[in-house]
């Protein structure tokens, strides 16, 4: 079933459209704005720069540190949760309150379409959610046709350098790579963000290395045996929106595909 990987869990469905929504992840905040439902947000958990549309909303704390009393004082009738945005103890506490909970952790770009439909239905934007989902699916199909490769390009995606982190199999960025005709060389690891040794990267010898920050590129020149170094294919990710799975990730994926098209 297509709902399985999305991990959408609504523990108590609201009888009517939610009117007081709190978001505990930047990507879910963006989904609300994309659904034209930003007026229903009453608080957000901070995790980076906020969109201008929610700049004045109350803060519920920062990533990993939810201020539970502040959340309850806002009297939400729907909580949007990315499971890793808070610790396990606070997740269980949230579930005990009986407040409707929309929980999402997409692993594929298609899952964002499912999220748009499901969340749109809960916040009174069902038609908008269906329209956006259909657009997303159609544009994904077009990207796959446009950037398909007979032999997938082998890519190492560096999330951070000290220590060295990448993406594993259960990671939506890996699906974006596949849309672009590429494959994550560490897709076999069953962790969303595995820590790696340099030797592991050398052994898998990627054709392209993608780094999250431009200043991280030069360090790889110390390893000229790497195919990516020999081909001059160490590039910075063109749009960090790849790390926020909302509708805007489609444009970030398009930019990624254009970058990888240059690979030899």
Keywords:
single chain; 264 residues; alpha/beta; seven-stranded mixed β-sheet; four-stranded parallel β-sheet; 9 helices; disordered N terminus
Low-pLDDT segments, ≥5 res: 1-14
Record the strand order, biggest sheet: 1-7-6-2-3-4-5
Largest sheet: 7 strands, mixed
Structural class: alpha/beta
Shape: globular
Give the N-to-C terminal Cα separation: 37 Å
Number of helices: 9
Helicity range of the residues?
25-40%
SSE order, as H and E?
EEHEEEHEHEHHEHEHEHEH
Average predicted confidence as pLDDT? 92
DSSP E strands, number = 11
Rg over CA atoms, rounded to whole Å, is 19 Å
By oligomeric state, this entry counts as single chain
The portion of residues forming beta strands comes to 15-25%
Explained architecture:
This protein is α/β, with parallel strands linked by helices and 264 residues long. Helices cover 35% and strands 15% of the residues. The protein contains 9 helices and 11 strands. α4 (109-122) runs antiparallel to α5 and α5 packs parallel to α9. The relative contact order is 0.13. The model is unreliable at 1-14 (pLDDT under 50).
């Amino acid at each position: 079933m297509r709902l399985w990987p999305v991990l959408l869990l609504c523990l108590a469905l609201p009888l009517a459209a939610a009117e007081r929504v709190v978001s505990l992840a930047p990507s879910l905040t963006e989904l609300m704005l994309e659904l034209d439902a930003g007026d229903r947000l009453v608080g957000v958990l901070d995790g980076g720069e906020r969109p201008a549309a929610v700049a004045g909303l109350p803060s519920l704390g920062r990533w990993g540190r939810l201020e539970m009393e502040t959340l309850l004082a806002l009297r939400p009738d729907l909580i949007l949760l990315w499971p890793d945005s808070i610790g396990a103890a606070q997740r269980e506490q949230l579930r005990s309150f009986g407040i409707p909970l929309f929980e999402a952790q997409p692993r594929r770009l298609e899952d964002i379409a499912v999220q748009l439909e499901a969340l749109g239905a809960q916040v009174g934007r069902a038609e908008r959610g269906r329209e956006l989902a259909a657009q997303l699916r159609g544009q994904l199909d077009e990207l796959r046709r446009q950037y398909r490769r007979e032999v997938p390009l082998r890519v190492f995606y560096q999330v951070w350098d000290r220590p060295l982190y990448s993406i594993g199999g259960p990671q939506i960025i890996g699906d974006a790579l596949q849309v672009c005709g590429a494959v994550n060389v560490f897709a076999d690891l069953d962790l969303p963000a595995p820590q790696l040794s340099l030797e592991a990267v050398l052994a898998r010898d990627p054709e392209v290395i993608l780094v999250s920050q431009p200043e991280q590129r030069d360090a790889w020149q110390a390893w000229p045996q790497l195919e990516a170094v020999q081909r001059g294919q160490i590039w910075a990710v063109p749009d960090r929106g790849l790390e926020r799975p909302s509708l805007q990730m489609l444009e970030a994926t398009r930019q990624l595909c254009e970058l990888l098209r240059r690979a030899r």
